[in-house]
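Risk register update: the risk of archive-format incompatibility is retired. Evidence:
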Amino acid sequence: MKKFYAILIIGGFLIGCGVVDLSSLPIATTTPVKPQLTNDEVIKGLKEALTVGIKNAVDSSAVLDGFLRNPEIRLPFPPDAMKVKEKALKLGMQGQVDKFETTLNRAAEEAVKEALPIFKNAILNMSIQDGFAILKGGNGAATKFLKDKTSDSLAVAFLPKVKNATSNVQLTSYWNPIINKYNAAVTLTGGEKINPDLDAYVTQLAIQGLFKLVEKEENKIRKDPGARVTDLLMKVFSNI
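Archived output:
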C-alpha cells in the first residue's frame, strides 16, 4: 500500500513540475470491427439487393418512353434488317420507319410490365459459396450470376408476353408495309427477302436492357450507402 501511494505522489509531482506531458502520451485506439455476417444474411442480402434492383429497373422501363427515350436500352431498327431500313428511306418511308422504331420500343415497354414476377421467381438459387463469391466479386457480379443462371428460362417465359405486347401495340401494322415494299423491290433485282423474327428480337433486347438497368442498381448499392435502403443491405454491403 505504501508503494502505491509513493507512485501516486511521484507521478503527481512529475506532472506538476512539467516533467511529464500527458498530451504527449500515446492514446489507445481501437479499430472498428465490422459486424460479422452469417451465411443466411449474405444470401438474403444479395437476394434483397437484386429484388431492389429489379424493381427499380422495371419501374423505370415499363413506362411510356422507358425504352424509347433511354439511349442505354433503346431498341434500334433490327441490325439484320438494316438493308430494309436503307431501302425504305430511299423510297420515302421515313415516317413509317420512325413509327416502326417507336412501336418496337412500345412493345418492350409493354412487355416488361409482366417481367417483375418472372424475375422475382428466378432470383438466385445460389449456394453459400456462390453468395460469398458474389459479395466479393465487385461491380456487376450478382447481375452476371443472375444472367448466367436465368437468361434462357427468362426468354422462354418472356416471349409470350412479348408476343402479346407486340400485338397490343400493332407492331406488324407498321412493319408489314416496310418489309413488303422492300421484298417487292428486291424480287425485281433478284435480291434476298428478309423478314426477321420481331418477337425474338424484342425479347432479347428487352431482357438485355433490364439486366443493364439491374446492374446499374447493383453497382449503386455497392458504392453508395444511401442506396442501401434496408438494415440488411447496410450490414451486408458495409462488409465489402
